[in-house]
Amino acid sequence: MKITDITLGMLRVPLSTPFKTALRTVESVDDIIVSIHTDSGHVGHGEAAPTAVITGDTHGAIVAAISTVIAPRLIGREVADLNALTHLVQTALARNTSAKAAVEIALYDLFAQLHGAPLYRILGGGNPVLSTDITISVNDVDTMVADALSAVRRGYESLKIKIGTDPAKDLERVREIHAAVDGRASLRLDANQGWTPKQAVRAIRQLEDAGIHAELLEQPVKAHDLAGMKFVTDRVHTPVMADESVFGPVELIELIRMRAADIVNIKLMKSGGLSNAIKLADIAGLHGMDCAIGCMIETGISVAAAAHLAVAKADIITKVDLDGPSLCAWTPVEGGVTFDGPRISIADAPGLGIRAIRGLVALQD
Ligand SMILES: C[C@H](N)C(=O)N[C@H](CCC(=O)O)C(=O)O
Ligand SMILES: [Mg+2]
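# LOXFGALJ complex -> structure
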């Protein structure tokens, strides 16, 4: 199976409601779709989410990185040489993790198709069913309480509460949601870098003193501030999870060395795809650190790949935040992974199992 062509498309899918964090508000998925074609007629699919405020990746940069730098290295190469191909992707250029992720996802899709098995089996097997949390966007308190109750009614047992705009307001948000949910779902708090270390310690201690024990606190302080992450981790009982602070293995090793967090959130758009995500899970596992798997505003193409990885690494990846497809107003992906409320199930089809992508607009070379 030889790579003959790599084409790009744009996929725009409105979200059911605006997605709001301390970093940004977004109303639609607007992702670049990579299709890798082969001489055998097989096609592998990948997806890149341009999350400029987190990865620095924009549409233009993703398209340029793939079409002018990464793709020329891959044309004519054998899909069977997967590790050599991912090495070519990772060394093609610095950073650009979303572009690398999209290409790697398509390569792993093809590699699993070549072997006639779903990707999770190629990655080591497992039980192809997961349960994800759902994001409650940061809004006024009443809206967040209503959104949390609606999520509980739809069967979600874990809510990812976005905070980080203002500590006093954030405390009110969490207290009110905690009271309304009344133990029917666990609460994961994500400040998306919005607090200072001292604000984070003060806020979380107030919650703990009031008997509100969140499942975790995600990225309370600035991404680069590992000392700040450690300051918080050392002073609260609530487990602290690094998200924007860790992209790849180098950052994770430093985080572990400093004992700056308890959990790490792996995202393909940060790690540059599956090869580094596997390394992240293995490094964390080796050090007895729990992992979560997360996503940006993505559809069921790249999130499918993350789900396959989560299934194969279920012993290490114990928390799942793969709600991107569930936030979309409609489902562009046919086949593969089904996202039905909190339940994610993987079909027994080769690769990612994607049969068609609706609404894909081809980008000219
Ligand atoms: C969508 C997912 N549940 C999530 O919350 N991801 C965010 C970043 C998403 C974005 O801004 O595109 C996170 O974990 O910080
Ligand atoms: Mg986060």
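# post-check
The first strand starts at residue 3 and ends at 20.
The two ends are 23 Å apart (CA to CA).
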